[in-house]
Write a structure and sequence with these properties.
Blueprint: E1 8-13, H1 41-52, E2 56-62, H2 72-79, E3 85-90, H3 98-106, E4 111-115, H4 121-128, H5 132-149, E5 156-162, H6 171-181, E6 185-189, H7 196-199, H8 201-204, H9 208-224, E7 229-231, H10 236-246, E8 263-266, E9 272-273, H11 276-280, H12 297-301, H13 304-313, H14 317-320, E10 324-325, E11 350-351, H15 353-365
Parallel strand pairs: 1-2, 1-8, 2-3, 3-4, 4-5, 5-6, 6-7, 10-11
Antiparallel strand pairs: 8-9
Bound molecules: iron/sulfur cluster (2 copies).
């Protein structure tokens, strides 16, 4: 049966180049070939126009650093009339230039996500480079202030942080910072041990116990700062443990994979894949390459790669999660929670460590 999404989104790396060399960057040295030229402005615009008539409803641009691409804002200006919701990720540094800040606010972005990887210069600058904490904090203040001056509620300003050992104990301060800066949301991601992050594993990576502890802190803060939109890979089993231990309610956002259902990922040269993790893992090596500029929605979603991805990731739960522990014994699996079943170490079992600890602790209290 054909799979044709009524509405879908693309996460789109619009360029490869970046003005920083963050030590946790998973784009660097990744197994994905980024040596081809970035798609041209004309190709991007005609592709977005065409796909907007075939169900494309949202694009979230990534990089590289999108604002480093000189025609990025022009591309967005020209794509906005196609009725596709636009948003992007940035390291924020270019927003310190008033002319860029004004141009950004002239485009109807629904949200702008700005990376802050720590709560002070010491933690953040170790990852992103000297002086960057103060510059990004200043950029966010300017953005929020200029938006207010214009009397606008959009774009939503969101900060995004990767949890590392450098600052995880102070995660509550991130919520205080978000409130002080006047942003609307926080995205907290776990570290992906890919690219440069692999070389700095000891400095950055959390132990299982630290991951479990910090999950409790995030849940507690998400409850206390309920006016902020908080996105973090909440695990229902961990939340259940903390509900019993601390009385925190379960978060309302279930984990569910959108890949090849209503979301796909575009690389700077136009290569389109169901999910970047699957591509890093090498799943795409067995299929012909699809370029977003050449393929229509129906052909893309029913391509051999997307169909294979769905059979692996969205197949029968008992098969997909056979070697994922403790999900294969968890009553939440398939209803409140469907964690990412992809493994960067193909063939090995996956252990969701915070849930394993939560399950052990829940069993010992029962
Ligand atoms: S399904 Fe897996 S990840 Fe989700 S709550 Fe259960 S054990 Fe945790
Ligand atoms: S397979 Fe995993 S990483 Fe890929 S889209 Fe699904 S949940 Fe996300």
């Amino acid at each position: 049966m054909l799979h044709i999404p009524d509405a879908y989104m693309l996460r789109w790396e619009i360029n490869t180049e970046c003005n920083l060399s963050c030590i946790h960057c998973c784009n660097a040295d990744s197994s994905i070939d980024r040596s081809n030229p970035d798609m041209s402005m004309n190709d991007i615009i005609s592709t977005v126009q065409r796909l907007s008539q075939e169900g494309l409803r949202r694009i979230h641009f990534l990089g590289g650093e999108p604002l480093l691409r000189e025609d990025f804002l022009e591309i967005c200006t020209l794509c906005a009339p196609f009725g596709v919701d636009l948003s992007f990720n940035t390291n924020g540094l270019f927003l310190n230039h008033r002319n860029i800040l004004r141009k950004v606010l002239d485009i109807p972005f629904s949200s702008i996500t700005i990376s802050i990887d720590g709560v002070d210069p010491e933690s953040h600058d170790t990852i992103r480079g000297k002086g960057t904490f103060h510059r990004v904090v200043n950029a966010i203040k300017e953005l929020v202030e200029e938006r207010k001056r214009r009397g606008e509620h959009r774009p939503l300003v969101v900060i995004q942080s990767t949890l590392t050992r450098l600052w995880h104990k102070r995660v509550s301060e991130l919520f205080i910072l978000a409130r002080e800066l006047g942003v609307q949301g926080i995205v907290i991601n776990n570290l992906a041990l890919e690219g440069r992050a692999k070389q700095h594993e000891n400095l950055l990576s959390l132990s299982k116990e630290e991951e479990f502890w910090v999950a409790g802190k995030i849940l507690q803060n998400a409850y206390e700062y309920s006016d902020l939109v908080i996105k973090s890979p909440f695990r229902t089993k961990v939340a259940l443990y903390y509900r019993r231990a601390l009385g925190i309610p379960l978060p309302g956002i279930p984990m569910n994979c959108p890949g090849a259902i209503n979301s796909a990922y575009v690389l700077p040269d136009g290569l389109v894949v169901p999910c970047v993790v699957a591509q890093i893992q090498g799943m795409g090596n067995f299929f012909s390459k699809l370029r977003i500029q050449d393929v229509n929605t129906e052909a893309l979603w029913n391509s051999a790669y997307f169909t294979h991805f769905r059979s692996i990731v969205h197949g029968p739960i008992e098969d997909v999660y056979k070697n994922v522990h403790p999900c294969n014994k968890c009553g939440f699996l398939g209803n409140l929670c469907k964690p990412c079943p992809l493994n960067l170490d193909p063939g090995a079992d996956i252990v969701v460590s915070p849930c394993k600890l939560a399950m052990e602790r829940l069993e010992s209290c029962a």
